[in-house]
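agent> fetching stored inputs for the acetoacetyl-coenzyme A docking request
agent> found them:
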Amino acid sequence: MGAGIAQLCIQAGLETVGREVTLELAERAQGGIAHFLGRAVEKGKLDAAERDAALGRLRLTTELADLAGCDVVIEAIVEELGPKRELFAALGGIVRQETVLATNTSALSVTEIAAAASRPERVVGMHFFNPAPLMPLVEIVRAELSSDDAVETAYALGQRLGRNPIRCHDTPGFVVNRVLIPLLNDCIRVLDESRVAPEDLDTAMTNGAGWPMGPCTLVDLVGIDVHVHASEALYEKLREPRMAPPPRLVAMKNAGLLGRKSGRGFFSYEKG
Ligand code: CAA
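agent> prediction call returned; pasting tokens
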């Protein structure tokens, strides 16, 4: 997700710092961005000079300290509360007072993340959808202590990135995932109940319900681990049985079948 968000930023003309835990991972993300921008050039949607200028706006780093000059920081790290809270606490000692800190969390509480920050009023949710460069929505999430200014800064950034932002409050799953996660869980349970094959379930939902991609392809794209974490977080808050991750997905996560990113989920994918 971080790479997709960085791609949107550099395409919108923003000087962007991409921070990863290793330089190798950062370079891999940069390579993905260069690939997609290259495809846009081949299709005549972007000229080569624009592509080069966009790529020139991306600076890679492994150091949090290199985020010091940023007006907005968008966090897209592992989907767990502890590491996110640690990161937001550390950013307080690095960024300027007025910097907006946004989390791209799918289903965790923005308020609980913000509570670890030294200035929780500067923290909001900016929830992008996968793949970020293709999905127009961004949910701008107001946490308990978010200031109007921080919310409106994030909203304006969403517009600048060419997205269609919506404003919402910090409720479990916000808007889309409150609906989509139990729906996808139902789809996975149907796999076992009706003994339909994953490719046939996908055909059913694309051909019979007009979905742009089938549920198994979509969960593979999102990441089985991310989906399981999001389901667990929603179940913990809402206690609705449909929110709980189906056992088949938990088993896949435990086996390392994470979808596209691991090369295998419901389907197999070639490396890269
Ligand atoms: N950046 C830029 N371009 C990209 C890209 C990326 N990251 N990924 C793919 N593309 C390009 C492809 O290269 C392709 O171009 P070429 O074929 O010329 O190379 C082009 O985009 C279109 O690709 P597709 O042919 O696959 O496009 P499509 O018409 O099938 O649409 C889609 C793709 C928009 C993803 C569509 O299938 C769709 O809407 N799927 C549903 C996705 C969805 O529901 N996402 C939400 C997931 S839930 C979530 O994210 C929330 C959460 O918190 C977990």
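agent> quick read of the result: Residues 23-42 form the longest helix (20 residues).
agent> awaiting further instructions
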